[in-house]
Give the backbone structure.
Amino acid sequence: MKKLLPVLFVALFFLFSANSVLAATTCGGPIVPCGGMDGTTPQSACKFCHLFVLFNNLIQFLLLCIVPPIAVAGIVLAGVYFIFSGGNPGSIQKAKDIIRAVLIGLFIVFTAWLLVNLFFTYINVSTWTPRP
């Protein structure tokens, strides 16, 4: 049962993941803003300014599409440890440690985003769109 639980958890996570919902809303745009194909028409050539837009798009993708499912998976895993602990203090402490780690990780990630967003706002990239 102990070896089957992580496999079952991973399978259910990917089966019922919120990534498909997020992909249609916040993750729908391209990460690379230039140099590729937009349908059948080519996009404009990449310039130095597109590097900042690419970095901003990458940060937004990681924050809105990657971090929330991982945090939810961690909290669900901690809940599974709580449910199947059977009163074992070691399992309960492990669940508490997982929840603490998820919360600290979210704090670090969103604080880093705040600093990066502040930098991009300061250099006026967050509201700026490059010309083709």
In short: The radius of gyration is 20 Å. The longest strand covers residues 37-38. Residues 20-25 have pLDDT under 50 and may be disordered.
